[in-house]
Amino acid sequence: MGHEFRFGITLAIPGSRDAWVDKVRRAEALGYDVVAVPDHLGLTAPFPALSLAAEVTERVTLGTFVLNTPFYNPTLLARDVAALDQFSMGRLELGLGAGYVKAEFDAAGIPMGSPGARVDHLEQTVLTMRKLYADPEYQPAPTRPQGPPLMIAGSGNRLLRIAAQHADVIALPGGVASPSGLPNAMTPDELAERADYVRGLLGERRDQVELNLLVYGVAGPAERNTLNERVRRFQPGFTDDRIRTAPGVLVGTPQEIADSVRKCRDRYGVTYFTMLEPDLETFAPVIELLK
To answer: Which of 211, 219, 166 is nearest to 191 (CA)?
Structure first.
């Protein structure tokens, strides 16, 4: 059984309380399914922002996209996650990643372990949370015995093996390591290889797990010539040739973009797409076409 489309928006630009309330309510009114907050220094803090979002919205799922898991003690994180899940009345979707921005580890005074060590920490975090939540006496109690739905984000083989075992959503970042040290956009063939790999790992869970793709930019036909520079404000390593063909960059009329989204579903099995805050309004007409 296939999944219905879901569309998320990451909101992260700091501002006033009123500005935040207006943004999350606008996202809900436009038809987004998920309002998510990333976890980067200098941007909005995930847990306070999502707690406020829960108070001022009624329908949307509230997500972390995604937590820099090595920043967190698993037992303390489990407490905060369960409390937010409880206070949002079960609308939380917990997204976890292994972390990748060395400057943020340095700024926080937290040693940045090897890729393997960071993935180990993510796996231990998942196992710790599941163990704690399985205790019927655990407080604060999450709304489900296993805790909120879990998203795991990344593209490495070992991380995807962990995600295939534990996650409800697997988020493919649409970026790939490059010689510059900065991620570059995945080509269609590279994304297809990663999607095929993870679907092969899922086995009997294949129809139960959603695949997610982060969309780095959405633009109408008139913005085609300026889109590359706009994408590079968030991803400076993305090159023109790869942006032009990247599945995670959507250009065209709303109908053309809707067709591209359907092609992503058909080729990669992706049914859950997450936009960046600057594209909140631009992508909204596409939601109407696809829902």
So the answer is: 211
| Residue whose pair of structure tokens reads 């509230």 in the numeric block | 62
Q: What is the pTM of this model?
A: 0.97
Q: Given pLDDT bands bounded at 50, 70 and 90, which one contains residue 180?
A: confident
Distance separating alpha carbons of residues 159 and 243, to the nearest angstrom: 25
Kindly tell me the sign of the dihedral angle through the C-alpha atoms of 263, 267, 272, 274: negative
Q: How far is residue 92's CA from residue 148's CA, in Å, rounded to a whole number?
A: 6
* Strand 175-176, strand 184-185: pairing: antiparallel
Mean pLDDT, range 204-212, rounded to an integer: 96
